[in-house]
Design a protein that fits this description.
Layout: H1 4-27, H2 35-50, H3 60-68, H4 70-94, H5 116-129, H6 138-149
Helix pairs in contact: 2-4, 2-5, 4-5, 5-6
Length: about 160
Amino acid sequence: MLTARCRLYVLTTALTCVFLMPQGASALGFSAFDGNEMLKDCKAWVSLLDNPNFQDLDNPDTLRAMARGDMVNGARCVGYVSGVIDDHFSCQLNEPSSGAALDPTKHFCLPDGVSPNQAVRVIVKWLEDHPARLHEAAIVLALDALRDNFPCRQKK
C-alpha cells in the first residue's frame, strides 16, 4: 500500500506529464490542436453568437449548448484566436521598422474594429473552404486564414 506521501508524488508526477505533454509534442513538430479541433470549437462559438438567447441561462437552447460543452469549446476557440492575434501583433511590434510595408507572406493587418468574434467567423469560413488542410496545426491555419482575409496593404 502506498503511503500518503508516495501517492502525492505519483499524482504530482502524473499531472506534470499530462501538462507537459502538449508542449513536448509541439516541440517535436506535432500540434495537439489541429484544424479539425479548431473548426469544431469555433463553430460552437459561432453557434452561440448566433443564438439570440445566448446570455439567458434559463433558455433551453442555452442549457443544451452548455451540456454539449459548446461554451467551453467556444471559449477555447475565441481565446486561442485572440492569443494568435495578440502574439502576431507583438511580433510585428518587435520587428525592425524600415518604413516598408509588412511582408504579406508573414503578416496580416486587421482593420480597426475587427473583434475577436469577427476573426473567429472569418477563420471558420476559411477552414470550411479548405477542408484538405484540417489535419494541419491550428496555428498555421489561423495565420493563413487571417493573412488571406486581412492582407497588409502597400504603404504609399
